[in-house]
Amino acid sequence: MKLFDVYPLNDITIVKAKGSYVWDETGVRYLDMYGGHAVISIGHTNPHWVQNIEDQLHKIAFYSNSIKIPIQQQLADKLGKLSGKENYQLFLCNSGAEANENALKLASFHNGKKNIIAFSKGFHGRTSLAVSVTDNKNIVAPVNETENVILLPFNNSATLQDCFLNYGNEISSVIIEGIQGVGGINVADENFLKLIRKLCDEYNAVYIADSVQCGYGRSGKFFSHDFADVDADIYCIAKGMGNGFPVAGILIAPHIKPKHFMLGTTFGGNHLACAAALAVLEVIEKEKLINLTRENGLYLMNKLKTIKDIENVRGKGLMIGFDVPDHLKDLKKNLLNKHHIFTGEAKPNVIRLLPALNITRNEIDEFLKALQYEIAELKEEKEDHSDILSLIK
Ligand SMILES: Cc1ncc(COP(=O)(O)O)c(C=O)c1O
Question: What secondary structure letter does DSSP report for 19?
Answer without folding.
Answer: B
